[in-house]
């Protein structure tokens, strides 16, 4: 638990940072999986762990359940779909640093077939800063005396 952290990344990790979490969301997002048995079969995840993750996603508003033909479906909400850039970025990092044979999947734009990438972009000048050019400053939710806070 990250109770002592006043950090949005830490709060996000409380919801999606456990093993299997982003893979479940990835499969819902890109493979169209919605049923417990589909997730279990595709990922090989233990039923108790899958049940726990799905329950937490529903509680957090990342997924919602709907009954269809006597079986529950787990469907991503807009909050869940907002994790798409996270999954694409994490995949690209994995492609670069842990996929010696090259990317096992490629994200592409359904409309034209072009590859889709996630990029950092400055709101003011539209530049793509290098990692060393990105700094932090306290935001409106910073606590006095917290690292990076006044």
UniProtKB/TrEMBL annotation:
Q: Where is this region: Disordered?
A: 131-150
Record's keyword annotation contains Hydrolase:
no
InterPro entries per the UniProt record, alphabetical = HTH_HxlR (IPR002577), WH-like_DNA-bd_sf (IPR036388), WH_DNA-bd_sf (IPR036390)
Gene Ontology MF annotations: DNA binding
The UniProt entry, under Gene3D superfamilies, shows: Winged helix-like DNA-binding domain superfamily/Winged helix DNA-binding domain
Which of UniProt's keywords are assigned here?
DNA-binding, Transcription, Transcription regulation
* Domain HTH hxlR-type, first and last residues per copy: 7-102
Low complexity composition bias: residue spans: 138-150
Output the superkingdom of the source species.
Bacteria
Record-given protein name: DNA-binding HxlR family transcriptional regulator
- Annotated organism of origin: Microlunatus parietis
């Amino acid at each position: 638990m990250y109770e002592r952290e006043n950090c949005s990344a830490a709060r996000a990790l409380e919801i999606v940072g456990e093993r299997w979490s982003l893979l479940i969301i990835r499969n819902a997002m890109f493979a169209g999986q919605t049923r417990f048995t589909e997730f279990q079969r595709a990922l090989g995840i233990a039923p108790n762990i899958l049940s726990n993750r799905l329950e937490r996603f529903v509680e957090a508003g990342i997924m919602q359940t709907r009954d269809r033909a006597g079986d529950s479906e787990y469907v991503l909400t807009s909050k869940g779909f907002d994790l798409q850039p996270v999954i694409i970025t994490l995949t690209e990092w994995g492609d670069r640093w842990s996929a010696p044979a090259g990317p096992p999947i490629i994200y592409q734009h359904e409309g034209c077939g072009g590859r889709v990438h996630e990029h950092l972009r400055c709101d003011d000048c539209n530049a793509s800063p290098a990692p060393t050019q990105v700094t932090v400053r306290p935001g409106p939710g910073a606590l006095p005396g917290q690292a990076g806070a006044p």
